Amino acid sequence: MPEEEKIPLLTLPALALRGLTVYPKMMVHFDVGREASIKALEESMSSNKPIFLVAQKDIRVEAPDMNHLFSVGTVSVVRQILRLPGKSIRVMVEGQYRARLHDLVETDPFLVAEIEPLEAPAVEGRANGLKAEAAIRQSYELFDRYTELTPKNTSPDMLMNIMSSEDPGYIADFIAQNISMRVLDKQSILDELRPIQRLSKMNRLLHREVEILEMEQSIQRRVQENMTQNQKDAFLREQVRVIQEELGDDGDGEIAAYRRRIAEAKLPQEVEEKLLKEVTHLEKQPFGSAEASVLRNYLDVCLELPWTKKSKERVNVQAARKILDADHFGLEEVKERILEFLAVKQLAPDLRGQIICLVGPPGVGKTSIGMSMAKAMNRKLARISLGGVHDEAEIRGHRKTYVGAMPGRIMNALRQAGTKNPLLLLDEIDKLGSDMRGDPGAALLEVLDSEQNSTFRDHFVELPFDLSDVLFITTANTTSTIPKPLLDRMEVIELASYTDEEKLQIARNHLIPKQLKRHGLKKNQLKLTDDAIREVIVSYTRESGVRILERELGSLCRKAAMAIVSDGVKSVHVTGDTLEQYLGPRKYYPEKNGMENQVGLVNGLAWTSVGGTLLEVEVNVLDGSGKIEITGNLGNVMKESAKAAFSYIRSRAVQLGVEPNFYKEKDIHIHFPEGAVPKDGPSAGITMCTAMVSALTGIPVRGDVAMTGEITLRGRVLPIGGLREKSMAALRNGIHTVIIPKDNEADLERIDQTVRNALHFIPVSHVDQVLANALERPPLAEPAPEGELGAGMSGGETRTPLHQA
């Protein structure tokens, strides 16, 4: 017989793995941080060569040599490399075949190995075929038991993958790759070249893992049974104690218990003296009297208050940044302000009197960012909802002499938190009310005043309590309804509406995983494309935050759960085209901009409580007697802006190419579509002026231009508000150019980078500049006088209706 042909050796870049083994025909991704390993991967990608992956014997070794590596590894192909923050990378590889390590020919700048490819012997013969079949069946049974014991770490798809294969070697490799085992056990599977023996060895290891898991579950079950018995015993002992108290058998013990609790609490002297006096009073009361019941209630409440107990505060800016970034996407200005507060707190630990008010539309994360702040500072959190509170006693409590008296919400929140330095979240402070029972807003003046709250007295407790260590965070949708003295005590931080791109990232990273977990779905059972999420945002929601968006995503999860349970499908894939099958017809249609240049039709921009919107202005010029008609459910400010624009056109009629006597011979009708929606604000001034000039001169207005700005009688353009939301509306409606007041140029820094790159912003200070950029051709016969092109004064919107132009 001829001699067996010797397999030639190969020289490939090598990567030493720590705590990981890669098998042939398996797709694996892992993080790489060592510089030599990164260079080996880069060499493999640049030279289009495979890479040799071999496990380390000791994962603590940073620079391994030949003695630190196992002899058998896997030749793999690098499929993807992803750069991570810092110096590490994430790589995806696919194993190709086994190979034996002969030598390391280079160790700097990365490992280069000389390897010998290894071939698995074929399974031949009837006996071997039967052995293989028996081993495969055993692996099915063992892996099925393993998946039942570890449902979080495995999925039914893994079992299906195994059952669809008849290759014993592949089945052994697949199981070894996807279960938790020691590195030496995994390496022993890789070292075994014979498929049947490899699967048999894998079955022995898998059987051992199953026995260990069953033992763990048995121990956990016994612990749970013991805990249930202990709880039952405690419940029975408590019942016996209550029966004894009802029979009056333990009166002296009760008084002694109160005195002991007071002594152990280490209370301030004034508080201790007051409570001991009340205990003496209780001791003299006959059993079962109404006064005794009131005194017991009072003592219990006072002793539950955290007079001296504090939680250890964590003032770490870096840790807080990680928590805030993990819990919330965007909101950079708010996060920065909170981190500044923590930085000052880190330098001056005794700083007191910080009261922050988070103001923004519903659903943008005001309450949740307060909760994240408590977690970041390691403070206990107590939330108080002030919406609809009308009674002063809700804040200060009732006198204890009244029937059913109780402490106010501030004291109850401190009892709930259990410390005297918690974070108290006062929700919806803008919705406080007042009536004949008092004004709760006035009661909060003392609570939120750092100069007074160190001796806050609740009507029920009747003792001074120090609130100076409490961090108060209040939330509101608007500051207009907050009493001015109360607002003066708080530092206001505004939260803007989310852009569509921010909503997409929030949905992808936060809302969808939350809803999948809530509805019992796995990640692979409901797949949503980015187009589908964008379609939900645009066509099914109209909001500044993400509350309704989360509700719609929850509806998608319910539909997917129904399809999986009823129809037997394994996975639901939702795209933008198939979205209506699950959520029904679209509730909102994106505003379509025709992009046609038309006479008397101008694209304005408006701010609403749910974000920005495109606001068209239409003007018709008719033969008449000089009347001006303004329609579209407009407020007084907007009507005055129309009259100011009209007066400006009259003053410059000759220069604008308009008939000088037009105000005597022509009627002008200005209309804003969507007449059922209230509109107000001054920022549609230049929009109405441009529409009137276009209608009077017959010059069309560019359809790809939108504008916003207040106009004066002299034609100056004054600044406006809501530029961030308005620019988002322009981008959403296909606008290319946005004309803004020059004084708003600094606000461009706060606009989303995607929007800034997609739109062309033109800052203007005079209406002549607006007309030059908005009309097809400039109407000016001569430029405006030098003095009329000055910068606009400080100004902006003063009201917040549904549509603020």
Identify the notable features of this structure and list them briefly.
single chain, nine-stranded mixed sheet, alpha/beta, five-stranded mixed beta barrel, flat, 26 strands, 805 residues, 26 helices
Overview of the molecule:
This protein has 805 residues and is of the alpha/beta class. Helices cover 42% and strands 18% of the residues. The longest helix is centred in the first third of the chain and has 53 residues. The N and C termini lie far apart (94 Å). The C terminus is likely disordered.
Topology:
Blueprint: E1 10-17, E2 27-32, H1 35-47, E3 51-55, E4 72-83, E5 89-106, E6 112-117, H2 126-149, H3 156-163, H4 168-178, H5 183-191, H6 195-247, H7 251-265, H8 269-283, H9 290-304, H10 317-327, H11 332-347, E7 355-359, H12 366-377, E8 381-385, H13 393-396, H14 409-417, E9 423-427, H15 440-447, E10 456-457, E11 464-465, E12 471-476, H16 484-487, E13 491-494, H17 500-518, E14 526-528, H18 530-539, H19 547-567, E15 572-574, H20 580-583, E16 601-608, E17 611-623, E18 628-631, H21 636-651, H22 662-665, E19 666-671, E20 679-680, H23 685-697, E21 705-707, E22 710-711, E23 717-718, H24 723-732, E24 737-741, H25 753-758, E25 760-764, H26 767-774, E26 803-804
Parallel strand pairs: 1-3, 7-12, 7-13, 8-9, 9-12, 14-15, 16-21, 18-19, 20-26, 21-24, 24-25
Antiparallel strand pairs: 1-6, 2-5, 3-4, 4-5, 5-6, 10-11, 16-17, 16-26, 17-19, 22-23
Helix pairs in contact: 2-3, 2-4, 2-6, 4-6, 7-8, 8-9, 10-11, 10-12, 17-18, 17-19, 21-23, 23-26
